[in-house]
């Protein structure tokens, strides 16, 4: 472990490099709310430069090897420091979480994905981001490590509000676990953005399990940028259960139900009404792509 003082474009901060989880946790325990973890830095560095974030201590965790593994043992386990580009190209990820593989190509640009990490995007918790949306749709579990030990929380507990998660100041995200898909699972991810690589104006992640004949046994649907957390459309999931995937009436009804209690914000990119309308269109298209036998 080593530390130095650094003064560049951001506010003055102390830079520390942790070579193990224990070293990182010791630094977090020492500095608490005054510290930020540096992984890919694709969100944190711009926030530092804009003085939106002003940590007194920056803890670089990029050299911690145990946070960079991809494992398959029933569930898919992705270390928090796995780069997005690596996950995008990973056969275990494509097999164990096809929906994540489909969504990653929408995240920024290749240069950003080369540095950005799966865990970093999850911990940043931007409700417009693709990765938190997909992890919520897949019922992912988050392994948190702290001085008091380890704990596992589900996506519904992990994402608290905009840019806020269940992580305590003295904890770090170690890995993300995604349940193995069934042989009958089909998925699709779609988004609308001003330009490719921008954050989504609205996005949908859909995973369904189909019975023989095309009836939906289970649906999991989550939207990005419809709330202050990834918005799980439980009403639409319920409406689709037992319906055929190619039943246009059932799909339309599910799309209407999906946004019933969503509360998106209006901004310079789109009004709240526009986002709700886009979300319904995206869900219909995603289900249509699955019905057609492909993936979006």
Shape: globular
CATH class of the largest domain: Alpha Beta
What is the tally of helical segments?
A: 12
Low-confidence stretches: none
What is the CA-atom radius of gyration, in angstroms? Answer: 20 Å
Number of domains: 3
Mean pLDDT: 94
Specify the oligomeric state: single chain
The strand order across the widest sheet is 5-6-11-7-8
- Remind me, CATH topology of the largest domain? Uridine Diphospho-n-acetylenolpyruvylglucosamine Reductase, domain 3
Keyword list:
alpha+beta; Uridine Diphospho-n-acetylenolpyruvylglucosamine Reductase, domain 3; 3 domains; five-stranded antiparallel β-sheet; four-stranded mixed β-sheet
Structural account:
The protein is of the alpha+beta class. Helix content is 33%, strand content 27%. It is built from 12 helices and 15 strands. The strands form 4 sheets. A 5-stranded antiparallel beta sheet has the order 5-6-11-7-8. Strands 1-2-4-3 form a 4-stranded mixed beta sheet, covered by helices on one side. A 4-stranded antiparallel beta sheet has the order 12-13-14-15, sandwiched between helices. A hairpin with a 6-residue loop joins strand 14 (216-224) and strand 15 (231-232). The chain is globular. The N and C termini lie far apart (45 Å). The mean pLDDT is 94.
């Amino acid at each position: 472990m080593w530390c130095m003082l650094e003064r560049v474009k951001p506010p003055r901060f102390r830079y520390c490099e942790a070579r193990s989880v224990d070293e990182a946790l010791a630094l977090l325990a020492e500095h608490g709310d005054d510290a930020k973890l540096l992984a890919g830095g694709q969100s944190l560095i711009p926030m530092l430069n804009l003085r939106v974030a002003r940590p007194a201590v920056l803890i670089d965790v990029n050299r911690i090897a145990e946070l960079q593994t991809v494992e398959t043992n029933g569930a898919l386990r992705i270390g928090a420091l796995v780069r997005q580009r690596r996950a995008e190209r990973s056969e275990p990820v494509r097999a164990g979480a096809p929906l994540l593989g489909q969504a990653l190509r929408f995240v920024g640009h290749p240069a950003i994905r080369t540095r950005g990490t799966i865990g970093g995007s999850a911990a940043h918790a931007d409700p417009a981001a693709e990765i938190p949306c997909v992890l919520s749709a897949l019922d992912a579990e988050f392994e948190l490590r702290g001085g008091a030990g380890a704990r596992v929380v589900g996506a519904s507990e992990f994402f608290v509000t905009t840019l806020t998660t269940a992580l305590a100041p003295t904890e770090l995200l170690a890995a993300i676990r995604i349940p193995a898909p069934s042989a009958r699972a089909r998925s699709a991810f779609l988004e609308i953005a001003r330009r490719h690589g921008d954050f989504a104006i609205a996005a949908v992640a859909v995973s369904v399990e189909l019975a023989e004949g095309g009836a939906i046994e289970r649906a999991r649907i989550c939207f990005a940028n419809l709330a202050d957390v990834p918005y799980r459309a439980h009403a639409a999931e319920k409406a689709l259960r037992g319906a055929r995937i190619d039943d246009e009436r059932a799909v339309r009804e599910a799309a209407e139900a999906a946004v019933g209690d969503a509360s998106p914000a209006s901004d310079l990119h789109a009004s709240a009404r526009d986002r709700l309308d886009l979300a319904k269109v995206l869900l219909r298209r995603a289900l249509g792509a699955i019905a057609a036998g492909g993936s979006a």
